[in-house]
Task: structure prediction
Amino acid sequence: MKAAIIYPGVGTPEYKDAPEPKAQNENEILVTVKAVAVKQLDKSIASGKHYTSDAKREAGQIPGGDGICLLPDGTRVYGMGIGGMMAEKAVIHKNRIVQLPSTLDDATAAALPNAVVGAAMGLKLKANIKPGDVVLINGATGVTGRVAVQLAKYYGAQKVIATGRNQHSLAELKSLGADQTIAITGEDEPFVKQLQDIHQATPISIVIDYLWGHTAELIFSVLKGKEMFTNPISYISVGSMAGDTIQMSSAVLRSVDLKLMGSGIGSWPQEHMRRIFTEILPEALQLAADGKLKLETVTGKLADIADLWKQQVAVGKRLVIEPLSNVSLL
Result:
């Protein structure tokens, strides 16, 4: 079969022949792959920079942890791979599968799940969002941030505040459900003032943070309590695009009813993973099929993976690789 293979010390995958994988036990199944999204997570793991990467791995590996595929009986599903999925065939977990709505295209179906998990895990399973909550999404102009804006509204948020650097993309968020936007310009005072005004008028109850770094420090300075009682706030760290470390006064933790949590692979209990595949992803994929959850994609062929891997995709869009031009059953 053909596959994308990336080797240690090489920045881009190569399009090469690879041995067909085999299911090793009854909990695994060999599938034909139709579409795989290229995510920052995949690039980070492949480069060895992600905290889940196997630093000792020396042989080439196939990137891509999930994708759209056909089961042996022809059923089209989203599945999570045992190994890499950017190939014509792959092995997936039998219990990490979601059957797709018939009207949902492969590219959207491949692009959405990672973003849905990155948004819903924080909103629903960590912060336990409820109708009437005021949600701040820090770094909302990327793919996952855009999905988070839409899901926050769908889950009942009274108000969604979105921050971001890209002015054009930030403006687009209002059509996706953002009630207010705050530009990250590098100037602290305007950012803090706008957030203070919003927090005073409608106290923030949930923060989903994809940036961390200095913007997180500014947000904590706004959330810091100044009176006897404060409203409960759940702060969920999902990403660190603006920096991996921050400085925070311990007074923040003592002056506000704050729950500070992370949402990432190592922080998800098995029950949360079960709910992702039985509740959250099926619901989100149906929303997309109904046109109520939007995500733009750019598609390319597996044979062009070396060039596509380096391609700068427009902010808010996801690149999807379609390994097969003519899909046939196993």
